[in-house]
Fold each of these.
Amino acid sequence: MQIEFLETFVEVARYGSITRAAGELYVSQPSVSARLQALEAELGEQLLERTRRGVRLTDAGREFLPYAERAVRAFREGQTKLEEVREARSGHLALGAAPAVSTYYLPAVLKRFALEHPNVRLSVRTGHSEDVLQMVLEDQVQIGLVRSMQHPEIEVEPCYEDELILLVHPAHPFRTREAVTLEEVAREGLVMFDRTSSYFELTRVLFLDRGLVPATAMELDNIESAKKMVELGMGVALLPRVAVSREVAMGTLVPVAIRDAASIHRPVLAIYRRGAGLSGPGLAFLALVRELRAINGVAGVGASPEAPLAGGAAAS
């Protein structure tokens, strides 16, 4: 049953006239009559009868009219809702994000998104990149923010590029040096964090490639604890730039260049299912990611959407 049949029946019942209904619907009178006949044939009931005064409802027509009106109203409301979702004026955006992204990058992005799309409901689930990939593949989230990875069923959108930088306490001897060597860093007490994170592997490989085994002050399971240990002078750490912008700005952590090691960059991607047909909120979120990437430059290097980190970059 086509919605036009129901809409035509409702309009004819409202005006009691095929001519007036045809005018309201912008169709010809024969088209109105054909729709009514098709509807009655499908229902197996006569809904209207012609009189010298126009058209009147039969008993069956009076019984059926409220249901037809509700169906037409629901359809139109559904159309309006889809239009709102398409334009990101309503709907739901479910995101998955790796811990560092969720903690240090995403809040400012979501603040901007919420200001631009106040009626879109937001939800975020956190997990390591492999977990977030699975969330995307199982349609638990629409978009995931993860380290660089590939899968035949996902599309990727560059989000930003993070960088590991060496951080020390403001009173540490490295503070007065223009740059230090990797061997010197290896002799310091290195604060390591989260063996399940790609950051741990990046740090480990940096030293192993040079045949160095760094002295480890301690191992922690999260970035915040690692930052606090360095702030208390209990070691030095290689930490993601996106996670330390506030501390560097406040002077409680000091970045130091490493003279003989290439800077360690890790791209962060927005991923979504291939061919999934993202809704308006999802498309609007990707558009915002692109806009912020353009503002911060390709490097992005963990720059906050609100307060890009200035100065103290790791050595190239």
Amino acid sequence: MAAQLSLPWRECGEASTDGGRAEVPRPAAPAVPSPAPALLFVRNGRARRYILRVLPDATVRVTIPRHGSRREAEAFVRTRTRWIADRREELDVRRRDTRWRAGQHVWWRGVLCTVEIGSATGAEVTVRCGDLRATSPVREDYRPVLEPLMRACAARELPGRLRALAATHGLDVARVTVRNQRSRWGSCSRDGNIALNWRLLQMPAAVCEYVLLHELMHLRQPNHSSRFWAEVEAVCPDYPRARGWLRSEGLALG
């Protein structure tokens, strides 16, 4: 099976108990709104508190810390019903409107660039976003114009970046592909093939590099064990900051 880096940017917010060993949450009176979200309980021995995350399909993932219990986790969910409803509503709004309109800010090469419309030439206008430029008829959504340019840049640049990092760390990559992945940043198969999401070129260089290193370290540890994370930390000591950016800003890349 391929090890993969899932998309925290596709999740919609996070809630947790206070740090340290979690206390038993007090149940709240309100019930989960109808239709009730599906709950996915995951135990994580490294977690120090209960954590809620709303996933792309509106499932609520509940992380149970090492000394926690399913009963306490269910009680914690009941105290956060309003928060869950709000995050699911935000996710639904983002899912419905993915257009890139004139004047909107779009992530590109780590900067929030404005979609700008320039002078008209005949029936067409000039569309700019960062270093990207194209001509297009006037339209409500310029994403179909700009996104292919971004994907072409990613296909040209990302494989070279990955192979350069692989050489630096003495690793061999069999094959690199750049894809329009919807549920992961990248993946690494056991035979050394790495697939990358073109959206990596939208994010800051340091965050992109973390994702590339994350996939490369799967060549040494094809899992997400403590040994794997030790490998990641050795080559990218500031990786928690990159993961934080993905959680806070990544949803805008969808």
Amino acid sequence: MTHQVRAVVARGKGAPVSLETIIVPDPGPGEALVKIEACGVCHTDLHYREGGINDDFPFLLGHEAAGVVESVGEGVTDVAPGDFVILNWRAVCGQCRACLRGRPWYCFDTHNAQQKMTLASTGQELSPALGIGAFAEKTLVAAGQCTKVDRAASAAAAGLLGCGVMAGIGAAINTGNVGRGDSVAVIGCGGVGAAAIAGSSVAGAAKVIAVDIDDRKLVTARKLGATHTVNSKETDAVEAIRELTGGFGADVVIEAVGRPETYQQAFYARDLAGTVVLVGVPTPEMKLELPLLDVFGRGGSLKSSWYGDCLPSRDFPMLIDLHLQGRLDLDAFVTETIALDEVEKAFERMHGGDVLRSVVVL
């Protein structure tokens, strides 16, 4: 049996997305069919549309999603029909060298569905964004990409843990190891940076400094836990962070922009033996130049954060519980809810910096 559903497809590089009818097969061994309830509009989806990931068009976009498992294939035991789940793009294999060393958050052989979804009009195979493809009424994923969480959370808020919000929170808690009493600076306060601020606050940081060039984002950062804000268009970010930390620099600096200039700010804004976490995604042509003596002399750690170094089975339920306890406001990341045919307009608003997240609600 197959399912005909509506979905958002990017047919060619730079072309506006279109609402199409696609064919979704029933799940095979190790797979799950998920009825999507909500899916966030992430910058990564725009990267796919622009050909910035690869050129395997057409793409089935969408990946920050939550929904209900409709059916599962042979051998699936971790989730069952009726389960409310968040989708993830890190379905760990359990067998690669990272998993066998007890570091499954670095899994080097993550799973996706083996069967292909196709365009109803032509039969052409679709490439699902991050192996998910959730701007659709239903999608097919590997069962390990489904993490069961408490149904009491709204799908619009829960789904954001599937990518950007988890990336930011994890950059602070998992990669940066932010702890009680630490000073933290976050450079770039879009969706991921804002989540890093919220994560630092939840982790007990004594001082959380938000840095951006947009005052609107700094206002939001305050609401999510920033204790201080710096507009780096008006003030030297490094000097401001040092001044706010007794002249030393922050214990942890999280770079959520992905540019050489802001990475250098992060490098020099940290305390001696402090930690820099890069969670912003650079483009292939970018180069970084730092005096090697400074890298040696300042000590500490220079880290990159992949997906917030998260383990979905561990982190998603824990963060949903914190949300339901009122300790982590995931609803604050949902700027607007939209229909499936409004994704292209949401990309335009993203460019203008008008939203933390637009969320498609089905």
